[in-house]
Amino acid sequence: MIDFSQLDRVIHEKGRLAIMTVLASRSPRAFQDLKSELGMSDGNLISHLRTLTKEGYVRELKTTAADSSRPCTSYEISGAGKSAFNAYLKVLEAIVKQSRPS
């Protein structure tokens, strides 16, 4: 029996799943890089990053660009985010395994 209630609702939304997938493999990532890679608008990306940050899954990093005094905002997955993402993937793997005939 598949227990879909085990899927983390914060991560399960398409935009947040995309952000978590990118940050789990390559972190930290600059806001502009995330925006370009994921094809999201500023507002959409900010909204999802705020949700992930509020849940403690993502951390915001403020730095200054080396070649100018321009501020640069980057994001990285937190330890809690890595744990939640790995748990999410395990649930998905279990769903896939149960849905395939043996």
Please outline what is shown here:
By secondary structure, the chain is an alpha+beta fold. It has helices spanning 9-12, 14-25, 31-38, 42-54, 79-99; strands at 29-30, 58-64, 71-77.
The quaternary structure here is single chain
Percent of sequence in beta strands: 15-25%
Describe the global form: elongated
| Structural class determined from secondary elements | alpha+beta
What's the tally of helices?
A: 5
Q: Could you tell me the mean pLDDT?
A: 92
Please tag this protein with its features.
elongated, 102 residues, 57% helix, 3 strands, 5 helices, three-stranded antiparallel beta sheet
Chart the SSEs and their pairings.
Layout lengths: L8 H4 L1 H12 L3 E2 H8 L3 H13 L3 E7 L6 E7 L1 H21 L3
Antiparallel strand pairs: 1-3, 2-3
Question: What does this entry look like structurally?
Answer:
- This protein starts with 8 loop residues before the first helix and ends with a helix.
- Helices cover 57% and strands 16% of the residues.
- It is α+β, with helices and mostly antiparallel strands and 102 residues long.
- It has helices at residues 9-12, 14-25, 31-38, 42-54, 79-99, and strands spanning 29-30, 58-64, 71-77.
- Strand 2 and strand 3 form a beta hairpin.
